[in-house]
Design brief:
heterodimer, A: alpha/beta, 2 domains, twelve-stranded mixed sheet, globular, B: 418 residues, alpha/beta, Peroxisomal Thiolase, Chain A, domain 1
Chain lengths: 412, 418
């Protein structure tokens, strides 16, 4: 049996904080980081509340020449990757030359950069399109730049599966570790707030039209009216447990199990069964019993039918014990960052395992389902096993089980 | 204990050949399909040539609702998937055990650009007018919608995802699909890739870095991999879909196995987003890993389907990579690039190339490299110029190289290899 995949480093660029040292207190304390969409002005679109990353100094993280060749989503990814490596205390030169790879998930690519270049094309002519459009807009930009920026020559990948893609990417990294890689950087980031990106997103019909940042995104309540979109995301260092132990790294969590199903775009009547099956596969692969799950990090789409489907999935999974299992969605404090969102959920779950505290679901104070939704202060207590659920806009249902490492899985 | 992966169905939409039969005829004819661009008025662009599909969605069997909803590259994919699914004749007992893994590099750019022009008033408005957008525009933003449409076309409810590693996406999608079966996450995976990149923004972005050929007055000879006079790739479009199946699952139901996917690996050059080294170290490493997984040595490879894009850098890069892996034997292994005939359809081409490899194994014929009149002195291998070659093939290798530094390798074997 191959060694476990352990998470040893976390890098975060989120509306609620840059770096885990800011992100954890923000989500633990249920801080509200949604606000008006200010990335362009005026805002003529029927989406007012969003999770924007403020205070991100790109020059701190991205070399000048690379910064101009890349979109904001890649700036976030490069920064998050750097933080994750720093947190893992891992220098890529210490990893075998082809043993360190990168997998990122994406939803909208470098769309702001793309809008600028396509504007030049149509306003001024083809010769005005710059040389970096070909590498800045496409979905693979972050994986490529992280690989180049950090000298990572191992296996690489790029997944586009919307929100669920973040969990699929983590499973992909684990698969590469089982096939011989030593370490992987994995995650996803988004920067979907230029006018054309908003124009595209309006069509999916799930953006909340609310104009009050405390009530725009209220999943599982009777006032659910869609979600507030967010920007940012996370990158994680995942390592072969033996390699991590050998170098004395601290394993923060074990990526223990994964499952994925498909039930079609917005077919929520079927997504209940899809989510349930994905979760069962993940739990089975982790070799744990459902009774051992200490907390569930929810997809929390914020659409009445979708929330009902998620509740039904949980009820089928946990039966009569459901009201004893804490469930939470810290993302209501900062928005759904598409492909970045599940990566942030995983970070939140790892931090919860680490600190023995379940962060709450900000802004939500009533729940229309019979769920133990954590609201108010963080819930303290030892957590050993977390289940993370995510659904993609186009019908993917993914689940990951994270566990606290046993002492023999790469402790201090 | 790894499960083996059988190929039991194929579907293709390629320039000059809609459907597997027409495609294979083209592949063995050595004809080229590159021509002046007809998809949009290309005056003012540096490269004005492409390999286009003469594709009528209605004739291809799509109904109005599908045509309205699906971008061109998704239409290609769904039609190819139906062809492959029909051939495989999978009787699905459990849709939760059927997955989809599709590749695309630039996804819905055709619709994204079309609606951008409409909503921005030809680029005049930064704050685009959302009321002028198509109701399906949101699908164009995320190529996750590609895999979703293919999943619906075949009734898949297992793992479904889109892979978007630039120009290696087609190889990677099939490779990842094989892993879903090896790891027991699915019994059947519909795998492939699709691209319809022939639109002004994509042509302009390759113009800007002079990656594409400017041989505008001689379109049919413009794609010239390994030739001394090559001057870049010619943009193409299309799709290919392979039905992959757990070997035992296929055997039990008596399915005709066309080939076996035996090896897959990726590496990155960590060098440059678009540039390649002259050494080919990382591609060679990907090939070695794929051979290892297939449990074959370089001596067992009977044919290499090259990336062969026809850029100055690429063809030397991979020639160096092959020499690194095969040593002296590199000169004895036939290598060819079908991009010489059907252009470079970015994320789709890897899946189209794997389809050509499966057909090459089945028919014992190696597709040629068209337009190879005067080999580049630095490209001195046997590139099967002009004419297809009959050869008994047991194990073949297909490689790809993509923006971002991606290097991928897939090994396919004859079903009766052992």
């Amino acid at each position: 049996m191959s060694p476990a995949a352990v998470i040893t480093g976390l890098g975060v660029v989120a509306p609620s904080g840059i770096g885990v040292e800011s992100f954890w207190p923000a989500i633990r304390d249920g801080r509200r980081s949604l606000g008006p969409l200010t990335r362009f002005e005026p805002n003529p679109y029927p989406v007012v509340v969003a999770g924007e990353v403020h205070g991100f100094e790109q020059s701190e993280w991205v070399d000048g020449p690379i910064a101009v060749q890349t979109d904001r989503f890649t700036h976030f990814a490069l920064a998050a990757a750097k933080m994750a490596l720093r947190e893992a205390d891992l220098d890529p030169v210490d990893v075998p030359p082809f043993g360190f790879g990168v997998i990122t998930a994406s939803y909208s690519g470098g769309v702001e950069f793309g809008q600028r270049e396509i504007e030049r094309l149509w306003r001024n002519g083809p010769e005005h399109v710059g040389p970096y459009q070909s590498i800045a807009w496409f979905y693979a930009a972050c994986t490529g730049q992280i690989s180049i920026g950090n000298g990572l020559r191992g296996p690489s990948g790029v997944l586009v599966a919307d929100e669920a893609g973040g969990l699929d990417a983590l499973a992909g990294a684990r698969s590469e570790l089982r096939r011989g890689a030593t370490a992987m950087l994995v995650g996803g980031t988004e920067a979907p707030f230029c006018p054309y990106a908003i124009c595209c997103q309006l069509g999916h019909g799930l953006l909340s039209p609310g104009d009050d940042s405390t009530t725009a995104y209220l999943p599982f309540t009777s006032r659910a009216a869609g979600f507030a979109p967010g920007e940012g995301g996370a990158m994680l260092v995942v390592e072969n447990a033996d390699a991590a132990r050998e170098r004395g790294a601290r394993a923060r969590a074990v990526v223990a199990g994964y499952g994925a199903t498909f039930t079609g775009p917005q077919r929520y009547d079927r997504s209940a069964e899809g989510l349930e099956r994905a979760a069962r596969s993940a739990v089975a692969e982790a070799g744990v019993d459902l009774a051992e799950v200490d907390v569930v990090f929810l997809d929390a789409l914020g659409d009445g039918r979708a929330d009902l489907a998620e509740f039904e999935a949980l009820r089928s999974l946990f039966g009569g014990r459901l009201d004893q299992i804490p469930v939470t969605a810290p993302k209501t404090g900062y928005g759904r960052c598409y492909a970045g969102t599940a990566a942030l959920d995983v970070v939140a779950a790892v931090l919860a395992l680490d600190h023995g505290a379940i962060p709450p679901t900000p802004n939500v104070d009533e729940c229309r389902f019979d769920l133990d939704l954590v609201t108010g202060p963080a819930r303290e207590g030892a957590i050993h096993t977390a289940l993370v659920l995510s659904r993609g806009l186009y019908g993917g249902n993914s689940a990951v089980v994270l566990r606290r490492p046993e002492p023999n899985e790469g402790g201090n | 204990m790894t499960r083996r992966v059988a190929v039991t169905g194929l579907g293709v939409i390629a320039p000059g050949g809609l459907g597997v039969k027409a495609f294979w005829e083209l592949m063995t004819s050595g004809r080229t399909t590159t021509r002046p661009i007809t998809s949009f008025p290309a005056q003012g662009f540096r490269s004005r040539i492409a390999a286009e599909c003469d594709f009528d969605p209605r004739e291809a069997g799509l109904v109005t609702a599908e045509i309205d909803r699906m971008d061109r590259y998704v239409q290609f994919a769904v039609v190819a998937a139906r062809e492959a699914w029909d051939q495989a004749q999978v009787e699905v007992a459990d849709p939760w055990r059927v997955g989809v893994c599709m590749g695309s590099a630039v996804g819905g750019t055709t619709l994204l650009e079309h609606d951008y022009v409409a909503t921005s008033g030809n680029g005049e408005r930064w704050l685009v007018d959302a009321d002028l957008a198509s109701p399906f525009l949101h699908r164009a933003l995320s190529p996750a919608s590609l895999a979703a449409e293919v999943a619906d076309a075949v009734g898949a409810c297992g793992p479904v995802r889109t892979v978007s590693t630039g120009c290696t996406a087609g190889l990677d999608a099939v490779g990842h699909a094989a892993r879903l079966i090896e790891e027991g996450r699915a019994d059947v995976v519909v795998a492939g890739a699709a691209e319809s990149p022939i639109s002004p923004i994509t042509v302009a972005c390759f113009d800007a870095i002079r990656a594409t050929s400017a041989r505008n007055d001689d379109a049919e000879h413009a794609a010239r991999p390994f030739d001394r006079d090559r001057d870049g790739f010619v943009l193409g479009e299309g799709a290919a879909v392979l039905v992959l199946e757990d070997w035992e699952h296929a055997r039990r139901r008596g399915a005709l196995v066309l080939a076996e996917v035996t090896g897959f690996a990726t590496r990155s050059n960590a060098h440059h987003m678009t540039g390649l080294t002259t050494e080919g170290v990382e591609m060679a490493e990907a090939v070695r890993q794929a051979l290892d997984q297939a449990e074959v040595s370089s001596a067992d490879i009977d044919y290499i389907n090259a990336h062969g894009s026809g850029t100055r850098q690429n063809d030397r890069h991979e020639t160096a990579a092959f020499k690194r892996v095969f040593g002296e034997r590199a000169h004895a292994v036939p290598v060819s690039s079908i991009k010489s005939m059907i252009g470079h359809s970015l994320g789709a081409i890897g899946a189209i190339e794997l389809t050509a490899c499966v057909l090459a194994l089945a028919h014992g014929v190696i597709p040629p490299t068209a337009n190879l009149d005067t080999p580049d002195p630095e490209c001195d291998l046997d590139y099967v110029p002009h004419t297809a070659r009959e050869e008994d093939l047991r194990t073949v290798l297909s490689v790809g190289s993509g923006f971002g530094g991606f290097q991928s390798a897939v090994v396919l074997s004859h079903p009766e290899r052992s």
